[in-house]
Amino acid sequence: MIGTAADPGWLGGVTSERAECVLCPNPSPMTLDGTNTWLLAEPGSDEVVVVDPGPLDEGHLQGVLRRVADTGRRVALTLLTHGHDDHAESADRFHELTGAPVRAFGRGHDDLRAGETITVGGLEIVAVETPGHTSDSFSFVLPADNTLLTGDTILGRGTTVVAWPDGSLEAYLASLDRIEALTRAGDVTSLLPGHGPFVADAAATVTFYLTHRAERLDQVRDAVARGAQTAYAVVEEVYADVPRSVWPAAELSVQAQLEYLRTHP
Q: What is the pTM (predicted TM-score) of this model?
C-alpha cells in the first residue's frame, strides 16, 4: 500500500447489519492499520462468511472465532480476496479450526468464477474479478448493502501497489473501470477494503483512484523523458512525496507503469 500508516480512528467494528471487521494487529506502512478480516452474515442467520482471515496469527484467528461465537453463529465459508500472506497465510489453519471450506481464485482452492453468486445462510455475495494488484484478485459485492469488499484493489486510505510482475497496470485499470461501472449503476455505493477504514462514498473514491493513476503515469512518462533510466530513479523523482519505507513497493508499481507505457505509448 502507498499511503499513511496507522489511523487511530479505525479500529474495525460493525459497519452494517451484515458486515463487521475484526482488525488484525499487524499494522505497518504496507498494511496501514492492519488487515481487515470481514465477518458477513444475513440478519437472523447463524452462518458467517469470513473474508481474509489474515496472516498466521493464532491470537487473531482465535479473536475472530470468539467474535463469531459471541454472536451465536458459526463460520460456514472462508473467502480470500487474493493470496498475499497478510490476507491469506492463515487460510489452511483457519480451515482446520472451523472445518469451513476456503474459496479463492487460482491458488489451488475451489476456484471462484467471475459473476458467480454465492449464497450462505440467505446472504448473497457476488464474485467480481478485479485483477491488477495481483493476478488472482477478486472483490465481492453484497447486493443487500450495495457495498463491495475490495481486498487490496481499493484501500480505505491512500493508494495500493500494482505488485509487478504478478500484478498488471492494464488489468488494474480495467478493474477500476469495472468497479466504476458498478458505482454508476448504483449497485455499489460503499466499500469494505482490505486495509483502512470503511469507505462511505465508493464513486468518489474510484474517481480519485483513476485520476491518481493517470497523474502518476504522466509523471512517470515525464521522468523517463528527462532521463530516468531505472525504476528506482523514477521512484526517487515521482514518489518523493511518500515515506521511503514504502519505496520498495512503489518501485513495483513503477515497474508496472513502465511496462504499461511500453505497450501504451
A: 0.94
